[in-house]
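Severity: low
Component: inverse-folding endpoint
Summary: output formatting inconsistent between runs
Steps to reproduce: submit the following structure tokens with default settings.
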């Protein structure tokens, strides 16, 4: 019996603050989503908001061990609920996101929120407090720069990848880059809402920043140029392997379940030890299957579509659902 998505993941992880440069901090754990914050002379900028107000308040409590300055801006790297739905805990802070992320929140934010709660219930403890979909206050096309004291923080939409709206936080004076889920470090790479072919090019644009420190969406921070380059290579290799495997299945006339079984045979020996790999693989195969068959934009995920997919690839799991 294969548990649905991450419903069997019930072990809480303790996030911790890590200082990367003066005033620049990550909030990282083993493989839960990483966040970050930057402390300026007068105020604080946070990168992502966690999944619920409860989770966000726990983070704010930890931020207060570093600074009592007000949090003025909350930047969303993308629209997924696990990143965006804690925003209300930040009170009057202005929510900043790319225009593409804002559009995705409107178009598919509710379905994603409901689906993510079903997939990862541990991360959504206290979801009842969420007042509604997060609505950004400041939207940008390609880039907006925030001046935080003498420091300039560049929030940049560098291309499609994990979603259509992914943006990074680049702090050039200290070489720290927060990549959101455009880049992971040896954890499962979720492709269910991805533009997989585009993602390969976007990762090269990410590499070109040559950060001294790269904070991935999940996994340990990367603190050398070589570690950054290796992580980009590893991430790209997974995407290429996924595309090639599903294309092989299609060439053999396989349907979606057949492509998934081929992925289990060929991809799992290479990446099966990565955290949340078993959770993400069905969604990645489904998106690769669609993309390779010409479906340009990802289909919207809902709890119903989630369960239908899981029953298709793991019929024994939800036979009575």
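Observed output (run 2 of 3):
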């Amino acid at each position: 019996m294969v548990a649905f998505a991450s419903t069997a993941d019930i072990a809480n992880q303790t996030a911790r603050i890590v200082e990367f440069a003066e005033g620049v901090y990550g909030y990282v754990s083993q493989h839960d989503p990483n966040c970050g914050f930057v402390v300026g002379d007068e105020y604080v900028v946070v990168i992502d908001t966690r999944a619920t107000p409860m989770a966000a308040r726990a983070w704010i409590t930890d931020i207060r061990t570093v600074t009592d300055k007000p949090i003025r801006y909350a930047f969303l790297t993308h629209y997924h609920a696990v990143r965006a739905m804690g925003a209300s805990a930040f009170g009057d802070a202005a929510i900043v996101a790319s225009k593409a992320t804002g559009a995705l929140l409107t178009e598919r934010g509710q379905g994603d929120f409901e689906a993510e709660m079903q997939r990862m219930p541990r991360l959504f403890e206290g979801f009842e407090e969420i007042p509604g979909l997060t609505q950004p206050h400041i939207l940008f096309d390609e880039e907006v720069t925030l001046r935080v004291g003498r420091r300039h923080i560049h929030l940049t939409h560098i291309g499609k990848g994990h979603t259509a709206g992914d943006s990074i936080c680049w702090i050039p004076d200290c070489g720290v880059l927060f990549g959101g889920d455009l880049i992971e470090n040896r954890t499962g790479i979720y492709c269910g809402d991805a533009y997989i072919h585009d993602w390969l090019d976007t990762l090269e644009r990410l590499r070109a920043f040559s950060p001294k420190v790269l904070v991935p969406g999940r996994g340990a921070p990367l603190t050398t140029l070589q570690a950054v380059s290796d992580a980009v290579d590893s991430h790209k290799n997974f995407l290429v392997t996924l595309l090639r495997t599903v294309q092989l299945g299609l060439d053999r006339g396989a349907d979606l379940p057949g492509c998934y079984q081929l992925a289990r045979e060929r991809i799992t020996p290479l990446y099966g030890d990565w955290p949340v790999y078993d959770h993400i693989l069905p969604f990645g195969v489904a998106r690769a299957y669609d993309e390779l068959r010409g479906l340009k934009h990802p289909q919207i995920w809902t709890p119903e579509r989630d369960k239908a997919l899981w029953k298709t690839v793991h019929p024994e799991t939800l036979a009575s659902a």
